[in-house]
Fold this protein.
Amino acid sequence: MRTVSNFPIGAAMRFLPFSDDPELQRLQKHHFDSYTAGNDMKMYNIMPKEGVFDFSVTDAILEYTQENDQRLFGHNLIWHSSTPPWVKEKARENPDWLSSFMKSYISTYVGRYRSFVHGWDVVNEGLRTKGSGYREDSIWYEVLGSRYIEQAFFYAHEADPQAVLFYNDFNIERDLEKFNFMIDMVEDFIERGVPISGIGFQMHIRMDTPNGVIASTLQRAAATGLQIHLSEVDIIFNRHDDTRGGGLQIRTSLTPEMEKAQAQKYYDLAMIYRSVVPSDQQYGITLWGFNDRDTWIRPFFGIQDWPTIYDERLQPKPAFFGLLNGLR
Ligand code: G3I
């Protein structure tokens, strides 16, 4: 895929199983030229205990991506869900501490990988799950208010002025209230000189997510002039309510007709991205894992589904060829 695409094609991998799996590595090297860490670069792994950075896995990932000439994308700096318990406890005891912690965490982390990590999801999922408004069930919002979002961008930019800095979220391609709130926030940032350089559409979509809605939100987002990243793509047949365990099993097996329809949806998504996002704003398409064996969807929502382009036996599905043709 990397050879047919005009922009980087990535996949999220969890390094520890990945680094022990030669077949997965072979496929990853063959198809992708951008690497996102599925979990390894989140705060709960980078600073599991107070004051102690653990960069060992990220260093190993960096070495791997450099050896294989891949772009390393940093996921993520500030996310309510990857904030380790010790940070939440300490912030509640001493609210003044959180802002200085955020600054030193971002400065040290982004500074260490300055010019090696190409771009970062600076703030992930800072908005409510549904509809408009900031996410309130976040220690960052609770203690610092909405200003933590722009502060994080300033700290990241100061630590690496060349890094491409993203606001990343889910459902913004289909929940128009959420999308509009996000666009207002981003345009306000641009107007006030907050150093944001991109919008990440996670793009965990369903087969029934309308193509027209995806096209119009991507086009409107591109009108900001920022980089647009499809950062966590997968396409499910079933449904979920965005909470852990909140899956609704509608389809229990994968039929050839479903595979064909999914191939078409992957094709459509690539074509929409290529046609509505100007080429100099195409930061790339990243898949959130590329095989159904390792997909996060099954354990997270407790449902069976087939959201990716490779099957459980690491064979390409029709979806793979759909995406490939869409990129071509
Ligand atoms: O590794 C442990 C394992 O030892 C243990 O037995 C098992 C029991 O729960 O947990 C395993 O860790 C899990 C880890 O994924 C690796 O599979 C964690 O519990 C689980 O919380 C973690 O979930 C990840 C989730 O983010 C939270 O960090 C998912 O893999 C990962 O796919 C998901 O990714 C997010 C993006 O970062 C942001 N956008 C949405 C996306 C999907 O939720």
User: Anything to note?
Assistant: The CA atoms of residues 263 and 319 lie 4 Å apart.
